[in-house]
Each structure stands twice: as C-alpha cells, then as structure tokens.
Amino acid sequence: MPDIEGACGPYFRSGPRIAAAVRWHMTSRFDGRVALVTGASRGIGLAIAQRIVAEGGRVCLTGRKQDGLREAVDSLGGAPHAIGVAGKADDEAHQLSTVERVIGEYGRLDVLVNNAGINPAYGPLLDLDLGAARKTVEVNVIAALGWLRATHRAWLGAHGGAVVNVASVAGLRPATGIGLYGVSKAALIQLTAQLAVELGPSVRVNAVAPAVVKTRFATALYDGREEQVAQAYPLRRLGVPPDVASAVAFLASDDAAWITGQTLAVDGGVTLGGGV
C-alpha cells in the first residue's frame, strides 16, 4: 500500500475529515477498473501495477518471461487482483490474445499503460546496426500503437478510458549514447499527441517522460557513479519506480479528466538544465 499520508501531508494536517476523504479517494481511484500494463514483470511497469492495485484496480501484466510474470503477479496478491500473459510486446497476435484474455477475465479494460520498451543500440546514430534500430522502433513505437488499437477496438472505443505511454526525457532533447532510443521516444511523444486528437473526447492519451530511474534497464546509465549523475538533478537524486508510478496513476485516473495529449516530465528537474 502506498504511503498516502506521506504523499498528502498538508491535507492530513488540516483535519481528520479532510484526511479521511483524501485517504479514501487515493485508495479507491481505480475501484471497479481494469488496467493492462505492458512490460510489467519488474521495474517501472511493476511499480505502476502495484499502484493501480493498491488503489482498488485490477491489472493484467505482460512481459517476455513467464517466470518473472508469475512472481510479479504473486507479489500483487494473485487472482483476482492481477493476471499475467507472457509474450513479445511487438507481436500482434500476442496483443490481440492478451486483450481478449483481459476482457474474458474481467469483462472490461479501462486503462492501457504502454510501458514495454527496449534499447539494444548504444552509440552514435551513424554507427548503429540498422536491424537493431528497426527493432527499437518496432517495440517502442509501433507496438504501442498496436496495443492501443487492440484495446480501442475491444473496449475503449465504445466505453472510453485512458492511455498512458511511458516515454523518456531522451525523447525531449538529445542524449549522448542513447540517440536512437531518444528518437523512438520522441516518436512516442508525438504519437501520444496525435492519438489524443484522434480519439477524444472519450479516450484520453497522455505520456510520462522519466529521466534516469534506478532499474535494471537503466543500470548502465548510473552504475558506479550514481552520486555524480545525480548532481545534474535539482532534486539531487535519481528516480525510483514509484516516482513514475505515481505520475502514471494520476494521468490514468479521473483526477486528470481534463488532461489529454500531454507529456509529463518525471525527471527530478534535470530537463531544467544539466545532462541526462
């Protein structure tokens, strides 16, 4: 369960009635709702799933490895709180069968979080293997569109809902060494805005753009020099998965009911100046 009182300190200090109202609201924003989170066996994806379940929702997690998914689902309390479906994020058959499974299991699908992403290519753009570049775009951009299309046709188109894409600050400005990853995330940010226009008013589409978050995926960006890297951040620390999960939960909930097409930088202030 998230630290609701810590996150809403001023409200809790203002009186027991307001405190109770905020506590109830924060722990029930996803009551009766179902979310699909891709790439959720660990890291940011799992933290997002944890936050949604903690606030009353039910979640389907996807990932490539069945064992990792099973452990993640167990950590969420198992059925009916969560289910896992293994497969490759850019496999259209996997997308369609997963969405079908969610509808069959829960009878609805209100929230899609496109979190799955890869970064197999490191270095200057002109030195990259073009096969790796194509795969990066397939998973980070085209797969996100595929997941949204599948969920829209199965549920969102008729019933409405919310989509949150997990982009990166590398999609907002150039980043040394991960240029192709940044290009794919810039495309995802533009995809977010375009789909917000096309799918409104019933479906809201937003994105978050994290800076360096302490996960296995990002280890190469800070391993052995975390304090040095953190000096570029006004908040003087790197992110942790719950930082991103909180922002995603906000954008996916009715608290963001008048927000669409936006990309929220979850970055400790690093985009105000300094390096990624």
From TrEMBL:
**Out of the domains of life, which is the source?**
Bacteria
Gene3D superfamilies in the record, alphabetically? NAD(P)-binding Rossmann-like Domain
Q: Which InterPro entries match?
A: KR_dom, NAD(P)-bd_dom_sf, Sc_DH/Rdtase_CS, SDR_fam
Q: Which CDD domains match?
A: SDR_c
Q: Where is the Ketoreductase domain?
A: 33-211
Task: Provide the leader sequence positions.
Answer: none
Query: Could you tell me which PROSITE patterns the record lists for this protein?
Result: ADH_SHORT
Family under the similarity heading: Belongs to the short-chain dehydrogenases/reductases (SDR) family.
Report what the protein is called.
SDR family oxidoreductase
Q: Name the species this protein comes from.
A: Rugosimonospora acidiphila
